[in-house]
């Protein structure tokens, strides 16, 4: 498209942009180009870590960055260095990240170039996000949903704040992007999706990957406004983005801007354009945004001398920034392991666990009452998931009456979108909303694992503590008699391989209430596993899951185990005792089995699987000399086996027998038939037989 042929966006608007903005954009474009050239020229230094640059995308990115304000939120992708220059970051700051230096303002050397995590007065907030293509769409949409929620409750000024989510065209084919678009139009959220379309993935072209571009695709989402701009033309991009941003600010509904632009740099420094681009490179160079803006400025009366001076100044600035960044210190290795978690809010047990005159309550009701208390006391809290809204109140009635009490904006159903349910909590957290969400069954958490692993778990660590994700994810788990292969699974071992999340597993009503509240107050991602077989105490032998209901102030700190059964001192002294270390349903199998060995069995309820109460475990193992780790999961390669191995290694001198383990049979699913289920799973009789072997070893 030539400069004299206005696009639809420019035909609708006067093609006029202030000279000050044009000259600033040209200067920043020159800086961006010189940065990319420097990275290539200094590959011995700059090529140490993989990076991407914005070459070819400068016009649309600067048109965006120059118009964002301090009230906005930005979710860029890894090629968006020119957006970062546009909002006010310096080349030196970006180069600190490029070289993984200590003073990198985003991650202190922990993450790649173009991966900002920023809270700075006067600039948009940029939460941490991963490199995974398209995954930022869900947390970004969660931010917009959080803004809309806080505004609806009068907790945030309705000042026109919005979210800009930047995406590459290749990422729009991701299913998680579709989930984000769906929620944005369903809830009418203030978010602008900027799709930069350069026609390439890595080596695959757009024609190979899709039958329509993002503009056409957005037409399928009813309620999504859309616009197409020439992303290589700064004037067209600036005017288009101005109109788009104004629209979202006023309408408080989503919009997509599709910007076509050339890819003039490498996909990344590790995938060189020369390897596969061929003739397309020369064609792309004919559409260089810098050359086009330069030509436009000359037509407007700027002189060659003025523009050359700007280019010269940009080159000098980049040279100075490079030398300064190169000579800056590397991170200290002494704090490489800091900020896995933000410090917990609850560190001691508080409130009354068994208040005088209290009545016994089912575990499911204890959970309901805990959420009720939280919603009542924290207007920034909201609860959502599949079927938790007013019509059903949860498939286990774990949310019954909550929507009626607190309204459909606070307690509501989501589409069947586990990725959105999990990932949106990161965005909610970034804007100050506190989400309690539910995955309907543990067996269906897998679509949400991408978000849990890449976005929630890494955010605190990679942002150097700036963006911990406060997220409470409730997950009904476990077998409960005929639930079958898709409603009976246990997933804790998979979860426990993810660093940066906490995993909590209550076994009774009192712990359910206290741990759920502590999980809400924890500033980190917490997955709360709630055993369906204990919810109603309908499974034989689980009557003790009903307890006196604690008071409204009761909280249990995460990471503290509970001894639910003590061994007799004389049995310990004579060396005939053992400790069973378990959680969830295992508590009730262990209690039943231990009746055959009166006074000889201590039972530890872990309650929290990460962080684990290692001190309680080692004290008990050293005391008894015999340890038994019991789980409902298939045993092979499980958390239980890992824990047994750690006990064996670190408590070896205290052991009088190998660490015993018992779990379900090593099968891929729980069968439907109750007889087959019984054959697969542990039970009290199987625990009794194993315990007898251990005690007689």
Automatic annotation (TrEMBL):
SUPFAM superfamilies given for it?
Answer: Thiamin diphosphate-binding fold (THDP-binding), TK C-terminal domain-like
Biological process terms in GO annotation: branched-chain amino acid catabolic process; response to nutrient
Assigned keywords, A-Z: Oxidoreductase, Thiamine pyrophosphate
Key word Phosphoprotein present in the record? no
What EC number(s) does its UniProt record assign?
Answer: 1.2.4.4
Q: Which cofactor does it need?
A: thiamine diphosphate
Q: Which GO terms describe its molecular function?
A: branched-chain 2-oxo acid dehydrogenase activity
Q: Which InterPro entries match?
A: DH_E1, THDP-binding, Transketo_C/PFOR_II, Transketolase-like_Pyr-bd, Transketolase_C
Domain Transketolase-like pyrimidine-binding: where?
361-537
Matching SMART domains: Transket_pyr
Chain intervals for the UniProt region annotation (Disordered): 320-339
Pfam families, A to Z = E1_dh, Transket_pyr, Transketolase_C
Its job? E1 component of the 2-oxoglutarate dehydrogenase (OGDH) complex which catalyzes the decarboxylation of 2-oxoglutarate, the first step in the conversion of 2-oxoglutarate to succinyl-CoA and CO(2).
Name by which UniProt lists this protein: 3-methyl-2-oxobutanoate dehydrogenase (2-methylpropanoyl-transferring)
Q: What organism, scientifically named, is this protein from?
A: Chryseolinea serpens
């Amino acid at each position: 498209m030539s400069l004299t042929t206005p696009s639809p966006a420019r035909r609708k608007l006067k093609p006029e942009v202030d000279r000050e903005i044009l000259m600033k954009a040209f200067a920043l474009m020159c800086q961006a180009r010189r940065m990319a050239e420097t990275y290539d020229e200094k590959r011995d230094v700059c090529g140490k870590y993989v990076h991407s640059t914005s070459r070819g995308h400068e016009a649309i990115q600067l048109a965006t960055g120059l118009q964002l304000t301090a009230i906005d939120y930005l979710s860029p992708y890894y090629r968006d260095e020119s957006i970062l220059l546009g909002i006010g970051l310096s080349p030196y700051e970006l180069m600190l990240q490029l070289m993984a230096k200590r003073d990198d303002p985003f991650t202190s050397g922990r993450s790649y170039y173009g991966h900002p995590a920023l809270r700075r007065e006067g600039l948009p907030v940029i939460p941490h996000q991963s490199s995974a293509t398209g995954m930022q769409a869900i947390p970004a949409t969660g931010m917009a949903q959080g803004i809309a929620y806080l505004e609806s409750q009068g907790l945030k000024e309705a000042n026109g704040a919005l979210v800009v989510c930047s995406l590459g065209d290749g990422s729009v084919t991701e299913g998680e992007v579709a989930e984000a678009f769906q929620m944005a139009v369903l809830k009418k959220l203030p978010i602008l999706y900027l799709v930069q379309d350069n026609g390439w993935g890595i080596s695959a072209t757009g024609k190979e990957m899709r039958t329509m571009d993002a503009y056409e695709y957005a037409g399928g989402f009813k309620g999504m406004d859309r616009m197409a701009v020439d992303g290589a033309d700064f004037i067209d991009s600036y005017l288009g983005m101005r109109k788009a941003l104004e629209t979202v600010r006023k309408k408080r509904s989503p919009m997509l801007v599709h910007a076509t632009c050339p890819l003039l740099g490498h996909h990344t420094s590790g995938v060189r354009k020369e390897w596969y681009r061929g003739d397309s490179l020369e064609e792309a160079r004919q559409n260089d945004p810098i050359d086009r803006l330069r030509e436009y400025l000359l037509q407007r009366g700027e002189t060659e001398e003025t523009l050359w001076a700007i280019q010269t100044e940009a080159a000098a600035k980049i040279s100075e920034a490079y030398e300064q960044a190169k000579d800056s210190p590397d991170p200290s290795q002494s704090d490489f392991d800091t900020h896995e978690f933000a410090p917990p809010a609850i560190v001691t047990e508080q409130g009354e666990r068994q208040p005088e005159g209290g009545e016994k309550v089912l575990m499911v009701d204890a959970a309901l009452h805990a959420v009720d208390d939280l919603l009542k006391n924290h207007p920034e809290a909201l609860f959502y998931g599949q079927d938790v809204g007013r019509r059903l109140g949860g498939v286990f009635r774990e949310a019954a009456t909550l929507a009626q009490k607190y309204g459909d904006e606070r307690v509501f159903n989501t589409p069947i979108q586990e990725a959105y349910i999990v990932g949106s909590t990161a965005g909610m957290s970034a804007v100050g909303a506190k989400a309690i969400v539910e995955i309907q069954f543990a067996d269906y958490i897998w679509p949400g694992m991408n978000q849990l692993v890449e976005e929630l778990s890494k955010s605190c660590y990679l942002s150097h503590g700036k963006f911990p994700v406060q997220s409470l994810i409730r997950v009904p788990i476990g077998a409960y008699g005929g639930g079958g292969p898709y409603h009976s699974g246990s997933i804790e071992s998979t979860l426990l391989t993810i660093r940066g999340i906490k995993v909590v597993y209550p076994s009774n009503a009192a712990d359910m209430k206290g741990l759920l509240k502590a999980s809400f107050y924890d500033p980190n991602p917490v997955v709360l596993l709630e055993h369906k077989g204990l919810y109603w105490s309908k499974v034989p032998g689980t009557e003790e899951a009903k307890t006196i209901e604690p008071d409204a102030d009761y909280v249990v700190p995460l990471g503290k185990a509970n001894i639910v059964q003590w061994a007799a001192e004389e049995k310990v002294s004579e060396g005939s005792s053992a400790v069973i270390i378990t959680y969830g349903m295992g508590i009730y199998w262990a209690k039943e089995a231990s009746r055959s060995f009166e006074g000889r069995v201590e039972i530890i309820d872990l309650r929290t699987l990460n962080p684990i109460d290692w001190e309680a475990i080692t004290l008990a193992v050293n005391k008894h000399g015999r340890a038994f780790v019991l789980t409902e999961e298939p045993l092979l390669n499980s958390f239980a086996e890992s824990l047994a191995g750690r006990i064996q290694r670190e408590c070896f001198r205290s052991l009088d027998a190998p660490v015993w383990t018992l779990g379900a049979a090593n099968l891929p699913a729980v069968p439907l038939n109750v007889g087959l289920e019984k054959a697969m799973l542990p039970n009290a009789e199987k625990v009794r037989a194993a315990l007898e072997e251990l005690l007689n070893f």
